[in-house]
Amino acid sequence: MKTNIHPTYFPEAVVTCACGETWTVGSTQKEIRVDICSACHPFYTGEQRIVDTEGQVDRFYKRLEARQRFISEAEEREASKVSPDRPLEEFGVSARATNMLKDAGITNAGELIAKLEEGGDDVLLEIDGFGRKSLADFKKALRRMGYELP
User: Fold this and answer.
1) Which of 5, 88, 124, 129 lies 20 to 30 Å from 149 when distance is taken between CA atoms?
2) SS3 25
3) Which regions in the chain score pLDDT beneath 50?
4) Structure confidence at residue 77 (pLDDT)
5) What is the 3-state secondary structure (H, E, C) of the chain?
6) Considering the domain 8-52 in this protein, what is its CATH number?
7) What is the DSSP letter of 46?
8) Residue 137, burial from CB neighbour count under 10 angstroms (0-12, 13-18, 19+)
């Protein structure tokens, strides 16, 4: 066996915690400093405090807040898609069909849906120059954008 290769052993090494607790153990170091011990660790104390190392908890809460903000903005965008005040020009239907509805006093999605609920397809087909193809195009556009039709 080789001599002088083993570290020095200290049977009375002092361990000091950040909370102030100290105790002695056997170690190869004379003094040991630790951040958490059984006197201050939440698992042993039963406290529900969060041990934050290098701001990880703060970063987590910031990410959580950003996620909540993203979800609420997405819900607002989705709600604005089916707004009854949405103008007919945004549906991508021909300008001729849109102008026929405007001449009849229908300028937004809410008014168009109200007319459909009022009398079905026949009410809109009575508009001069507004035919079945235009009606079908508007219905497809309304469904595609998330509106519920009667």
Assistant:
1) 129
2) strand
3) none
4) 79
5) CCCCCCCCCEEEEEEEECCCCEEEEEECCCEEEECCCCCCCHHHHCCCCCCCCCCHHHHHHHHHHHHHHHHHHHHHHHHHHCCCCCEHHHHCCCHHHHHHHHHCCCCEHHHHHHHHHHHCHHHHHCCCCCCHHHHHHHHHHHHHCCCCCC
6) 4.10.80.400
7) -
8) middle
Q: Where are the domains of the chain?
A: 8-52, 88-144
The reported pLDDT for the residue numbered 39 is 86
Q: How far apart are CA 125 and CA 107, in angstroms?
A: 16
How much is the pLDDT for 92? Answer: 85
Amino acid letter for position 149: L
DSSP readout, 91-103? G---HHHHHHHHH
